[in-house]
Amino acid sequence: MSLSFALAAVPAVTLICGLPIYLVLLASSAVAILMYMNVPATVIPQIMFGGLDKFALLAVPFFIFAGDIMARGGVSRRIVDCILALFGRQRAARPITTIAASEFFGAVSGSSPATVAAVGKLMYPSLREGGYGEKFSLGLITSAGGIASVMPPSILMILYGASAEESVAELFAAGVIPALLLGLATVLYILWYARKVPKSQDVKRSGPETLRLVLGALPALGTPVVILGGIYSGIFSPTESAGVAGIYGILVTRFIYRELSWKELWTVVESSTRLTAQILIVVAASGVFSWVLTTSGVPQQVVNFVGSSSEGYWSTLLLINIFLLIVGCLIDPISAIVLLTPILLPIVQHLGIDLVHFGVIMAVNLSIGMFTPPFGLNIFTSHALFGARMSTICAGLVPFILLQVSVLFLITFVPWLSLVGASWVK
Amino acid sequence: MTTDHAASPPGAFGKAVNGFMFLLAQIASICFAAALVINFANVVGRYVFHAPIFWAEEITIILIIWAVCLMSFRLTLRGEHLVTDILRPYLPVSMQKILVTLTTLAGMALSIFIVYYAFKVVDLVHRMGQVTVVAELPKSVAYGSILVCFVLAVAGAALRIGNLLKGDRRALSPHDTLDVPEVAEARAA
Fold this sequence. Notes:
The structure holds two protein chains of two kinds. By secondary structure, chain A is an all-alpha fold. Chain A has helices at about 5-15, 20-35, 45-50, 60-70, 75-85, 95-110, 110-130, 135-145, 155-165, 170-195, 205-230, 240-255, 260-295, 300-310, 315-330, 335-350, 355-370, 375-385, 390-415, 415-425. By secondary structure, chain B is mainly α. Chain B contains six helices and two strands, in the order E-H-H-H-H-H-E-H. In chain B, helix 1 (about 10-45) packs antiparallel against helix 2. The longest helix of chain B is centred in the first third of the chain and has 37 residues, at about 10-45. The relative contact order of chain B is 0.18. The interface between A and B is large, with 74 and 69 residues.
């Protein structure tokens, strides 16, 4: 059994058997170190610690906390109310509000399932009341959450940035246009679909009520300003901005909206700590796996294989996209991004693809995986939230999956769409 | 992102285990909250008082790493680690029990292996008296987090195997860790 085979077979078998992802990575690394590499196994704990000893990575727990506190503190309701008040008279106001609120909430939380829950819980009854079918409403809400994985601050982008040693600020900026494009494509489909829905223009608010709702939402809408404004004005690093967003979240939800008690606030700290542990233990283990891959020369072998094959730049990129879409259907995006970045990066560098652009491609691919059967996390979220049949949700998702895959290929083959954003902050 | 879920053992021993798990989760949460406060204090110190906290980054990182490692007991015991549940749901219950027991056992063996080497690292940096660059915290405290993480993982895995052998079928039920409060509420309803 060669080293390359061991580094492919051990993860495959242990993943299928259901070993926790971090142990899959550690088991594969331990087999390689003990059987093929002449190095002491003391490197494992040292590299695990080194994998977490990065200040940039701390943006993950702080954004998780900021997102969680906003989700529980009435922020999503105010964002939805504000958008509906402003655009409620327009055609297809309710589904477009779902998209706009997902973009905004994504810019606050960075979490796809949290966005489905926070926006979906408010918008699903409204969509059904507005005459939109069950399949369409479920498909829209479940897929709209995917935008949060691309819209800055995206947790996937932070993990990719830490793994690929790319600037998180550039990755965030590169994600803006693709995230808006994903939203725009969905809005166009909604406008086409809404032609056959008769009761879609009945959300009306008076002038003073609209003003009250807009003013009420201002503190919530300030979060993306704090996060992105802080980063791009050079005041904060992404990690510091995440921490500041967390404290701002406490101020807004505890003192302005008064929707969270101190006890509930502590519950948010506890759940954020648990989710952070689930994610960062995988990141630590992936550092060891990545080191083993690099030291053993596996990426070079993969590059040689790709170089010797007849596939060109675009066809390789196409194959990587298809591969990532399949992976996204099976593995959660956080595990996928830390597992695959060190494997795919040498191929991407060999082809001369910009690493920031590739970060966006990975995030969009894996965000589509979030609502693609059989294991898309957003599908389970919708199933649990609305009690809908899985088959109904999946049927409703078909047009949205096709739509977003089309946008994915546009983003992939027009690098300018990602790179123009990144160039603004260089 | 799916996990499987095992119930805590009942009785006095179960209460002790739950108490220990609660205590660790509280310490981890305190580390998390402290990291958040230090990070914010550093920003305020820099821009408001023109006095940045130089050790803030180093201590924040170590606090978060300790928070992650202290959660290892709960995540292992309750099967809350990220898992790709591809095969298990399609197996009969008896086979599921065998599979989950074997994977937990394999995880425990691997954790023991890492405990041994993590101890060697901690011992080495302790003997050499190494400290961190800015805060001058002993590096044995920093590296000790990895040792503690896997010691707790071994303990969590042993208790989980005990639960499985006692025939706790809840250990086999799929349980999605969605970390979205509304989902938990919907499930409860």
